[in-house]
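Interim report, section 4.2 (structural modelling).
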Amino acid sequence: MRFTSESRLDDGVLERDFTLGGIPGVLWTPGSASAPAPLILAGHPGGLDGMRPRLAGRARHSAEHGFASATIELPGSGDRPRRPAAEQARADLRRAIEAGEPVGEDIVDRLVLPLVDEAVPEWRAALDDLLALPEIGGPVGYSGGVISVGIRLAVVEPRISAAVLFAGSFVPRVMFEEARRVTIPLHVLLQWDDEWNDRQAALDLFDVFGSREKTLHANMGGHTGVPQHAGDAAARFFDRHLK
Amino acid sequence: MRFTSESRLDDGVLERDFTLGGIPGVLWTPGSASAPAPLILAGHPGGLDGMRPRLAGRARHSAEHGFASATIELPGSGDRPRRPAAEQARADLRRAIEAGEPVGEDIVDRLVLPLVDEAVPEWRAALDDLLALPEIGGPVGYSGGVISVGIRLAVVEPRISAAVLFAGSFVPRVMFEEARRVTIPLHVLLQWDDEWNDRQAALDLFDVFGSREKTLHANMGGHTGVPQHAGDAAARFFDRHLK
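Predicted structure of the assembly:
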């Protein structure tokens, strides 16, 4: 992991861009940290440049609760090499949605499964390096989408102790079987009228998670309309489980 | 409204029993109130004596947030005169549940609709007297079940500004039409494995509420297993809407 730039935000949060094996990432650490901070891995749908304002907003909010946050670019997004099969699947998805047709399982599988297979080892490698920094302690949470990335990480990565999952993307049926094997505390955010999400599938997924402690918070509005109070509730979930 | 007893709880909350037209009730006010407190009407399934520990717990938690709480006995419960038709309906409901049969709509209608018709005017009369007390101000929230009582109150009682509804009882289909007319902010609690609740009906009901701001918080466990953090979240909902 090599830091490439840093800036101090007006609330004191230190924002540092880094690169790790050619993958760009960002680390935010609280300005007032006295001890090593617990870490939140901040998931997103890909495209760090476009997502940066929202990710920075989430990170600054988490920093108020004493958490560091880090994210990396997803395979095929931003400046990373294109993944033609994924781009075809994404085009097929858009076409189905715009035509008002049901989204075929094969499209979802082609879009999401290779992404999960490629992204999850990268997040785990990033976690290795992040936890080696003196200013980062544990425990570790995952927050955000792509929800299937969060599911896989929750299953395979024992250093992740709790997760806030955004039910805002299509989930391959095969991921439902992985979801049964998730046992860490979960806090699932669902935008009730999310145009990029199948509400019933999100409820079915919530039902199958194996976690003894799981909470679903559903709010009104579309994909980007998560209300402020929902962010507050997610931060309090991490307060309970990462401190 | 006539107070019949009072006691000071160890956290300073003043607990006063009252009677109003022969209906017993309880009022809890914060120990440290300097200004008239906003009021939460604390709904319950009937049977104040048995419910008192849980209601007092909710009231003490609300008092930490500066709220007064009040409740009254439901028609046919506690020491109030029996309602034979309702008791027959309740027996039919238990029989259906214990036999693993679907609960007929006629049973739910017979159980709930007369209760709503009788209880809501009583809650409104209690509200008249409660708001006349110098230590009670506004605004007013409703919290709890019977959810159909909360729906009706939200529709007909303009002094109620926000409601936390417990999806823990059967809801007559006709109440879904009333639910469409609810416009106040809502916070709906759903116990995912509630043995006294039809989960899909609860989700359908959440969907039809007309409120622009509505949030569903679903947690694991049965009817009485609402976790502490869910109570905290409900209190913060009232913080946002009653202050």
